[in-house]
Amino acid sequence: MSTAQVGKVHIHPVRHGVRGEVRIPHSKPHMQRAVLLSLLANAPSVIVNPAWSSESRDLFEAAKLFGADVVHEDEARLVVTGTGRSAGPPATPVTTAGSAFNFRTLAAVACLIPGETVIEGNASMRARPVTRYLNFITDLGARWDDVSDATHLRIKVRGGSRLAGETLIDPRHSSQALTAALLVAPLADGEVRIRYDGEPVGEGYVDLTLAMMREQGAAVERSGPSFLVTPSAYRSQVHLIASDFTALSYVAGAVAVVRDADVTVAGYRPSGLSSEKEFMEVLGALGVHCRHDPVARTLRLRHTGPAAASVEIDGRNMPTVVPTLAAIAPFVDAKVTVRDVAHVNNHKCPRVSVMLTELGRLGCQLTPLHRADGLLDGFTTTGRQSPPGGVAVDGHGDHRIFMSLATAALGCRMGAVVDGAHLLPASFPGYLDVLTRLGVHWDPSGRQHLEPVPTATKALM
Ligand SMILES: O=C(O)C1=C[C@@H](OP(=O)(O)O)[C@@H](O)[C@H](O)C1
Ligand SMILES: C=C(OP(=O)(O)O)C(=O)O
């Protein structure tokens, strides 16, 4: 059954460990940047190992509306001719569904185009502080208006003919406005200075943006929180897309939660993202031993037990794996504390608070941590638990919440029913097949179960 057809999934308790060889998707953040840079280059670019998720597909469709041309496309390779500065305004609104990254970066691309571009996101984006951080558009000489309605976040951007100047970006709640402004800055008409003020989150993603821009010929000088971008063209580039470390987190999560585990990720290519490096260190501390063989391109994951009695995690630079860490935390021997993750509540749903609520329903105990101003910004556990599960939990319209709750369900005595599998195409379309390959039994809720399940769970079907 294709995951697109399934909403509720009953994850059965794991009785015989998780073992096997799996593959994970290529990196969504690298793919999204590669698509944008290919659009902004005025020569053909090649994307090797394209990471096709619904979000990167939406971005690619948007790039075509702006004028990118597909020269060749197969499973392994995409060749695209960009427009450089001569992109035209799209004839139809540019749709970004629930992707704030696509919305913000396409709004930035629209600044380069004289004429009007309409960018549209779905209702979930109205609940997020997406338009709050678009000041860079007007600062650099373009204009935008909010023309949202009850069901869509929608803006009209009118590109500037003399794009240049200085903008100050608030980096405390999301890194994406910095990435958006940086990506288009080389194609402005004059120098662009981008500064930020405040403690940044997701710095690894900004570093990735800079690295990929520079590889493609952009002239960016950085001095602490200030970037000076001088006009330059993006040249043609071959982008080799690495593995997606956030997708990896759900496989590693299964290893951490189930413990009796020996899993190999085939075709694994580290991404160089500092967020990934930090996450790998955290996995080691939580007792997941990872051995990377760069020649065979495999990553072997086994459970060895945490190195220390308590593990402290700073989540500022690892926003995407915070829900996975919440799912893992109740199942490891160590006391786990995750701090500085208030920004993760600005994601597709308030990811920290919904994980604490839904994990609570499964019977997990995580204590919320608050900042001095009362804002939820972390959680802590007191060691390994044996939660019952056996209830239905909700993915809150968010692919990452679905996979994180499914990860926790693997460790619950009665498994759980998790709603939201239809969201998987956003980043990890083959996730349920990966579970199957690991020996996990799951079935669409409401259908005949593959094995007897406790009465408490049956009652929910
Ligand atoms: O630039 C990117 O590709 C991303 C940046 C981060 O966004 P925030 O800084 O808004 O958390 C991250 O959470 C998101 O999944 C991907
Ligand atoms: C990048 C993500 O989200 P967004 O772009 O909506 O912040 C994500 O959920 O993987």
UniProtKB/TrEMBL annotation:
Reactions catalysed according to its record: 3-phosphoshikimate + phosphoenolpyruvate = 5-O-(1-carboxyvinyl)-3-phosphoshikimate + phosphate
What is the organism of origin for this protein? Answer: Sphaerisporangium rubeum
Family note: Belongs to the EPSP synthase family.
- Asked if the record carries the keyword Repeat, the reply is no
Q: What is its EC number?
A: 2.5.1.19
What GO molecular-function term can you cite, just one? Answer: 3-phosphoshikimate 1-carboxyvinyltransferase activity
Pathway it belongs to?
Answer: Metabolic intermediate biosynthesis; chorismate biosynthesis; chorismate from D-erythrose 4-phosphate and phosphoenolpyruvate: step 6/7
For this UniProt record, give its keywords in alphabetical order, as a comma-separated list.
Amino-acid biosynthesis, Aromatic amino acid biosynthesis, Transferase
InterPro entries from the xrefs?
A: Enolpyruvate_Tfrase_dom, Enolpyruvate_Tfrase_sf, EPSP_synthase, RNA3'P_cycl/enolpyr_Trfase_a/b
In this chain the Enolpyruvate transferase domain maps to 18-435
Q: Name one GO biological process term.
A: aromatic amino acid family biosynthetic process
Q: Which PANTHER family match?
A: AROM/DEHYDROQUINATE SYNTHASE, PENTAFUNCTIONAL AROM POLYPEPTIDE
- Name used for this protein in its record: 3-phosphoshikimate 1-carboxyvinyltransferase
Top-level class of the enzyme under EC nomenclature: transferase
Q: Which domain of life is it from?
A: Bacteria
Gene3D superfamilies on file: Enolpyruvate transferase domain
